[in-house]
Amino acid sequence: MRQGAYDVAVPRIDPRWEDSRTVAGFVTGVANANLVAFARAVHARAPGGRCLDIGCGAARNAIPLADAGFRVAASDLSAPMLDAARARIAASGRPLAVGLVGSPMAPLPFRDATFDLVVAHGIWNLARSAAEFRAAVAEAARVARPGAGLFLFTFSRRTLPSDAAPDPGETFVFSSWNGEPQCFLTEEEIAGELGRAGFRRAAPGPLAEYNVPAPGMHRRGGPPAIFEGTFVLGTTGGAASPSPGARRVIAQIPGPGAS
Prior knowledge:
There is one protein chain. The protein is of the alpha/beta class. Helices cover 25% and strands 20% of the residues. The protein is built from six helices and ten strands, in the order ααβαβαββαβββαβββ. The strands form two sheets. Strands 1, 2, 3, 4, 5, 8, 9 and 10 form an eight-stranded mixed beta sheet that branches. A two-stranded antiparallel ribbon has the order 6-7.
C-alpha cells in the first residue's frame, strides 16, 4: 500500500506514540469484542466490503476485522506502530487483507465513498483542537459510503472533574488530564459533532460509558472514562470537501492476502 502524501502540513506526532515501551504495550493488545460483533453485522450487509481502521496502532483490531471478511486499510501516523502491526500480521501465519498506511487522522489518502465500515478506536480523542477533531470526523464521512457503519471509542467528559476548564478558545479540549491537549466530549457533544458530518446512531439508547470515576475520585492521568457506540452515515453524508489546497495521493485498498 502506498503511503498517502499531501501538500498541507502533516500534524506532528506525540513522541510517546513512537516510544518502544508504548509500542510494546500495544503489541499485546486484544481486539474489542464489541467492535468485532458490529463489524460482522456490517459485513453481513456488505460481504467483502472495505474497512478503514484509523489510528490502527499495532493492528489489534485490524487483524480480526480482516478475519471477519473485510479488506482493511489500517492507518497510523506512528512508523513504529506500523512496523509492529506489520510484524504482528506476518506472525499470524495466514494471508490477511490488511494494507498499512502512514497517515494522520485528517486528511485521509482515500477516495470519496470508499469504505463500508470506519473504525475510530481511541484516535479522535487525540485531536489537539476542536478544528482537528472536526476535520477528522469530516474526513471519515467523506471516505465512507452512504449507509456505512462507524464504530467510535473515545474519551468521555466525565474523565475530568465537573469544574475542569477547557483550554483557551476550546469547548471540549482539555490539557488538565495529562498535560497534553485532548478531546473529552459529553454524549450530547458527540451526537452534535458526528451529526453535522452526517452520522446518526446505529441503535437507539445512550452510548455505552465505561470507567466513570466516583464523585471526588478524579485524578490527573488516571484511567479515562470512555464512550463507545455505533453510528451509520446517512445517505446525504460522505461528500465533505477535502482541505483547501490538498493534493491527495490515493492509497490502494488491499486485496486478499495483502500486508
